[in-house]
Specification:
It is a single chain. The chain has 193 residues and is α+β, with helices and mostly antiparallel strands. The chain has helices spanning 3-17, 40-58, 66-72, 102-105, 109-117; strands at residues 74-76, 83-87, 92-100, 120-125, 128-130, 133-134, 138-142, 146-157, 162-171, 178-187. A hairpin with a 6-residue loop joins strand 9 and strand 10 (178-187). Helix 2 packs across helix 3. It is globular, with a radius of gyration of 16 Å.
């Protein structure tokens, strides 16, 4: 099953309902100083448990830790047309969460994992392919669909000031290929606290 696409649509709908635009929290009005608070630990944690951070944000949590890192330290490579703003040298995470609602589909966890394994994802920043790191396959209980197995595919980067283009492509047997282009606007250190 192609559930990641459902996650992307859910993300867009929920993000708009909680007034979270697909722009990093580093973005502000002209002239304001930015906060560069992301650490290697933040992006490493998101690379393992991004769906947990997503659920925490949905539940209204906004404290330091995963919810703050979710807003400030990552972008979704499949968010076609989105722009994210970060600070120069800040570690950021780019990625995709592939998932399968195996319990509600009436299949085994292993069959769900096999479905996820069929997806082929590639990401480039400014034409340079990024190496995607894979988390372990993990389960978590999603409202409405129940127990879901997921795999986080992600990379970390620290980019120089300027505008950068992230390009994503995915193949999956029996489905049209998917592509997305995202703009990463990276502010100079002088504008970041």
């Amino acid at each position: 099953m192609r559930n990641r696409l459902v996650l992307g649509v859910s993300f867009a709908l929920i993000a708009s309902s909680i007034a979270f635009a697909p722009v990093s929290a580093a973005t502000s009005s002209a002239g304001a100083t930015q906060q560069a608070t992301c650490t290697e630990g933040d992006v490493a944690a998101l690379g393992q448990v991004l769906p947990v951070a997503y659920r925490m944000v949905q539940n209204g949590q906004s404290h330091a830790g995963l919810p703050e890192a979710y807003h400030d330290c990552q972008y979704r490579v499949f968010a076609d047309g989105a722009t994210y703003t970060f600070c120069e040298g800040q570690p950021i995470l780019g990625g995709i969460v592939e998932l399968d609602f195996y319990k509600s589909e009436g299949i085994s966890r292993q069959e769900g994992i096999n479905n996820i394994a069929l997806a082929g994802d590639r990401v480039w920043i400014d034409g340079v392919e990024q190496t995607l790191h894979l988390s372990a396959y993990k389960d978590y209980n999603r409202p409405v669909v129940g127990i879901t197995v997921y795999l986080n595919k992600s990379f970390t980067a620290q980019l120089p000031a300027g505008d950068h283009v992230s390009t994503w492509a995915e193949t999956y047997p029996g489905y049209p290929d998917s592509t997305a282009t995202v703009t990463l606007h990276v502010l100079p250190r002088a504008l970041c606290a």
